[in-house]
Predict the 3D structure of the following.
Amino acid sequence: MTRHTAVAGLTAALVLSLAALGTAQAPGHRHGPPQGGPPQGPPGGPEGARARIVELAQQTVVAGAIDTLPKQLKAFYKTHRMEMPSLALEPTFPPRGPDRRFMVDRLMPFPFRELPRSEAALKAKYADKAEGIGRLPWLVQESYARLLDAYKAGDKEKILNESDMLAGLAVDLNSPLNLTENYDGQKTGQHGLWVRIEEKLPQAMGKDLKVSPDAAKYLDNPKEYVFSVIEGTYVWLDNVLYMDELAKRGKAGYGDPYFEDLVRRVGPILRDRLSHATEDAGSYWYTAWSVTGRPELK
């Protein structure tokens, strides 16, 4: 396979990424199945003690989103791209916790037509059933609101930081695993699926992790747009679960042969979802800038 070398070097790539971040500590314990799952809390705590790797998906989306923007806005982001947390020489990322998902299939089956559009309405309708499913749609909306405030204030640092945060949430929103109760494959005997797909697959793809987004567009209703993305993302869930099963079939573990197969099977899905995430991030940035009167940024 043309990607054999990249996949065969997965372990080395992870080590290099850790070194780049200055995090040489050994992976630690986290709650969930022994083979891993999405991080549950902030770094330094018992759930977040594992070593941090570079989140290539977010870096790819942030860098790509800049190129989706119109000329004036693109110039601002290009000039200050290294000041964005994920693109800095020593990149940093916000802690991942259970809030950064939305297990919507616990509440109702796809296509989620009766899904309430506010967090208050969701809790009123589902009460305890909605506890612990995550806050991803509301996190996106809250981040967008903060970006609006930053543009209004002309605060360069806050604009860059919040744009970066919003792009990371767009990555989450475009991942089928973040929208299901079976986010770690624990219901289908695929324990550790979240880390394999969300962290290790981008590393395994290396230079093949490229995006092809459309140009950023103006969002007429940014709050409602979140739910259209959820619907468009969730349809890929069964494909991801099945392709992971096929990639593991006949193999002793999750080594290089598995990742070779996973890159071939799930890599195209990942590129597609990250391309959408890139367009979404650029569209939120562009919309916030437009709504606030297209301020002159330096």
